[in-house]
Amino acid sequence: MNTPTDKRKKRTLILSLAGLLALVAGLYLALRMQPPAPPQLSQSTTRLPSPKALQSFELVTHEGIPFTLDSLKDQWSFMFFGYTNCPDVCPTTLSVLNVVANGLDGTGDNLPDTRFYFVSVDPERDTPEKLREFVPYFNEKFTGVTGSRKQIDNLTKQLSILYVIGNPETTGGYLVDHTASVLLLNPDGQFEAIFSPPFIPGNITKDFEKIARYRSRME
Amino acid sequence: MMLPGKFMVSISLFLSPVVLADDHAFSISDAWVREAPPIQRILAGYMQIRNDADTPRKITAVNSAIFGSVEIHKTVIKDGMARMEAQHALVIPAMGTTVLEPGGVHLMLIDPQKPLQAGDKVTLELQIAPDETQTIIAEVRRSEGVEPDHSHHHH
Predict the structure, then answer these.
(1) In chain A, where are the structural domains located?
(2) ipTM associated with this complex
């Protein structure tokens, strides 16, 4: 038997349940509308607060294929600047990037494709043929990039990459000082983050995944 | 019987260099040369050099028949740029260890006289002041990234 008191009690219960539901829904919406917090990255990784768009550039890969701003679209790109006659820093960094690439291969995880580029700042010596003999040695998926001095400068200036061609050595060669960092460009071809040495491959992999997830949440 | 006596003499002559090994200026460990694609005309060599003496010892030069020349360099990162600084000498502190490693002090091995592959052995001769040499063998290795043994060295 439902007495009037019972009915009143039921109505109160339904109303308070509805209220609670509204509260939860409101909180949920409020949280959703708040932008996700920027990713917490390791000390040697710096994400640009707003990614930097690039102007068009024209270079060539070690396979002789044009390498332009469009080549960066729809995938994340790791980019390192150096030269093939570099005995310590460049092979060390390319070996680190090989570990990073192998680490990413295993995860998949809905991340878009990643590419790895080694851009020469020593075009007088680094022809596409020479890069073909050098870059794929570290990982056959890695791509060497070169061009004329002017074409290279067009990209290095936009990315704040510095290099200084050294004086000729007694042995006939010369060394090149160059920015030691690895850059990350996003699938819109924008400059997104900088990884600075000393490199720890595991940190680069983790930070890249955080940056890529953050970006996909923001879209 | 004369034979055993003679035999003993020759054995002791044969052993003497091994005994002398303890008198070498340095204990060298983990000496290796990074394998590189054949196109690369400059390789890098790394090792750990321990000086057990109570005085610092100085390496003034490194020679090798397998390379056109050998230089000691240090990779320095300054204002974000990697720069190679030639070292005219390498001083190993008294009772101390100097580590030559990727991204730090290294041997620059210029113009290999033959192709080198992982597993090959390379002979290097350290010239130590004032007038001593020490021969070491370094193994050519393919580096797959950061050396796990060295991961605790941060610069």
Answers:
(1) 1-31, 45-218
(2) 0.78
The SS3 of residue A196 is coil
Report angle CA A86, B103, A90 to the nearest 5 degrees.
30
A45-218 belongs to CATH 3.40.30.10: yes
User: What's B114's domain CATH number?
Assistant: 2.60.40.1890
Determine, yes or no, domain membership for B20. Answer: no
Instruction: Please identify among residues 146-205 of chain A the ones whose CB lies closer than 8 Å to any CB of chain B.
Output: 162-164, 171, 173, 175, 177-181, 196-201
The pLDDT tens digits along chain B (155 residues) read: 444 444 444 444 444 444 444 568 899 999 999 999 989 999 999 999 999 999 999 999 999 999 999 999 999 999 899 999 999 999 999 999 999 999 999 999 999 999 999 999 999 999 999 999 999 999 999 987 554 444 444 43
Q: How many CB atoms lie within 10 A of CB B27?
A: 13
**Partners of B85 in the β-ladder:** B74
| Number of domain units in chain B | 1
Residue in chain A closest to B84 (alpha carbons) equals A177
Show the domain range for B73.
25-143
Q: Does the residue B152 lie in any domain?
A: no
pTM comes to 0.82
Buried b (16+ CB within 10 A) or exposed e, A166-188: eeeeeeeeebbbbbbbbbbbbbe
Q: How far apart are CA B48 and CA A68, in angstroms?
A: 44
Contact by Cβ (8 Å): A146, A119: yes
